[in-house]
Amino acid sequence: xxxxxxxxxxxxxxxxxxxxxxxxxxxxxxxxxxIIPTECPMIxxxxxxxxxxxQWDKDKLNAFMDDVFLHRDxxxxxxxxxxVKKKLLSYEGHYSFQTLIKAVYxxxxxxxxxxxVLLFGDKNPVYSTNTEKVLKAFPNxxxxxxxxxxxxxxxxxxxxxxxxxxxxxxxxxxRFSAKKVHRLKQRYPGSFFxxxxxxxxxxxxxxxxxxxxxxxxxxEPSVFEFYKKQQNAFAxxxxxxxxxxxxxxxxPITTQKTGVxxxxxxxxxxxxxxxxxxKYAEISGYSRKYYKDLGLLxxxxxxxxxxxxxxxxxxxxxxxxxxxxxLKVKEAGSILAFVYNKVFGK
Length: 346
What we know:
The chain has a single domain, classed as Rossmann fold. Helix content is about 50%, strand content about 10%. It is built from 18 helices and seven strands. It has helices at about 20-30, 40-50, 60-70, 80-90, 95-105, 130-135, 150-155, 165-185, 195-200, 205-215, 230-235, 240-245, 260-265, 265-275, 280-285, 295-300, 300-320, 325-345; strands at about 10-15, 35, 55, 95, 120-125, 140-145, 190-195. The strands form two sheets. The protein has a five-stranded parallel beta sheet with strand order 2-5-1-6-7, with helices on both faces. A two-stranded antiparallel sheet has the order 3-4. Helix 8 runs parallel beside helix 14 and helix 8 crosses helix 17 (about 300-320).
């Protein structure tokens, strides 16, 4: 018998872009007891407006639904609007924001067959720098923090177009995320589980068993066949997006993308990355190649640090804007970043 939505726990996959979070999300999507849609940061977007509502009437529920559908990536969930409306209107009365979010997530149409839902999940790279906001929205959730060698991460991000390919900036953002999550783990040790991408792909069965135990769900070996249905899973994604960002997910798990920085990065980039990331390399389980005489490099990377920090402060400022203004500003920012990378990225 299916539990009430309010009793089903929630978990988040957090980590920098190009760190294997999408791979991990797909593994859980293939689990018969887990619902975890493709990424759409509706939780952090909707919480400032709806997070404190406990009494829902039809007007509030309809407004909530309209705002859900405003998200740019929500169409990829393949959800019927009338089905969502019917589900949400059944929650008229005294319910939490968390329950309403689960009601929306429960309508996600996965390509993998589902049995009893034991767990809801969410994956989004922005959560690795907005973790406090997610904690406010879901204080009882569990968090899987996935890290990838910052130098491999640098190589991978340079291939895409949603972040400027500037070594100090990419390394700063990696360090910022690692530092933030490290501090939260110290405050909430039972809520966080850290794992390296390298360990996951080297021993996937062993590490998935650990993750399932942490989340309180049964281990299911069939999840490793997720790649066989990727063509169907990406049906609502633009073809160029799949080819550019997720092509590797159409194949079994491999270690081929670990340690690529050793042949792909110039020494000056390795040295800059080591200088910027600093001690958080070792804290996260990685070894720097360079340790000494890095002060001048840190100064040279200062523009990247300043830009990175200002971008995070600006994102915090957006929380004070009305919901629809906030979405428009974020969408405009994404378009500007894309254009900038196309024109100046190389």
